Amino acid sequence: MTIHKLSAGSGYEYLTRQVAALDSTEKGATPLADYYAAKGESPGRWLGSGLHGIDGLGVGDVVTAEQMKHLFGTGSHPLTGEPLGAAYKVYDNTGVDGFNAEVARRVRTKGGARPPYDVLARVRSKVARERFVAAHEREPRNARELSDALARYSRPRQTAVAGFDLTFSPVKSISALWAVAPPEVAAVIEAAHDAAVRDALNFIERQALFTREGRNGARQVETRGLIATAFTHRDSRAGDPDLHTHVAVANKVQTRQGKWLSIYGTVLFEHTVAASETYNTALERRLVEVLGVRVRRATGHCA
Length: 303
Hints:
By secondary structure, this protein is of the alpha+beta class. It has 10 helices and 11 strands. The chain has helices at 13-16, 33-39, 65-74, 94-107, 117-136, 143-154, 172-180, 183-207, 265-270, 272-291; strands at 2-7, 45-47, 161-168, 210-213, 219-222, 228-235, 241-250, 253-254, 260-261, 295-296, 301-302. A hairpin with a 4-residue loop joins β10 and β11 (301-302). The longest helix is centred in the middle third of the chain and has 25 residues, at 183-207. The chain is globular, with a radius of gyration of 24 Å.
């Protein structure tokens, strides 16, 4: 299992980009399953114990683009759009891209060689001064004011974390076996994979899913469980057989008392290896039991 953060706003869209191919008037209610069905893929599904706090959704329900936009885009109720606690902060960093592009244009050298540091520094200061004057209709009062402006123009503001993409992938030999096996055997392998993903998520809910309360988040507290969507893919970007599931875990959890807060991400990341091992072990055990395969534990390959 691997894990990485999803940014609020559009950070989730690589999971749902295929919706753009659908009729724009239907995006709000069209299940993402339409795209996956066309490819022979299974639809995205909702899962997690935390769904008990989301009226109108249950485990196994099909995911829609509008639901993803609400929950992972703004931190709102997937169906109603009502806030779930504090809204995510999303910043427009278009100006940052424009500043850096203008600097790059002015220092562009023949052959694409990196310009000397002093040249780059002078150009950055000049562009920052021009932007400051355009915005405030005066020159910066001193070097400190210019330096602060340069920092604002050149550094993107950090958008809130909307969730975490947990990607569960068996070792290559298992994907290869799944790809060449008869349909009934492939179905067994995929079912074992799905069950192993559930085992890993149950482990995370028991051992690694917390939030924080109190001044500076000093108190670690338990939650009612995670809210997530699962998308199972069957090939890699190169087109090779690659059975894997993306589980997008929303950065919205409820305390036992029902208060909506964010996940204590440090603890979740600390349990990445343990959750991965839970998945790997559960998958191997099921394949041994139902198919009689042999697993070489040093590599995780099956035979």
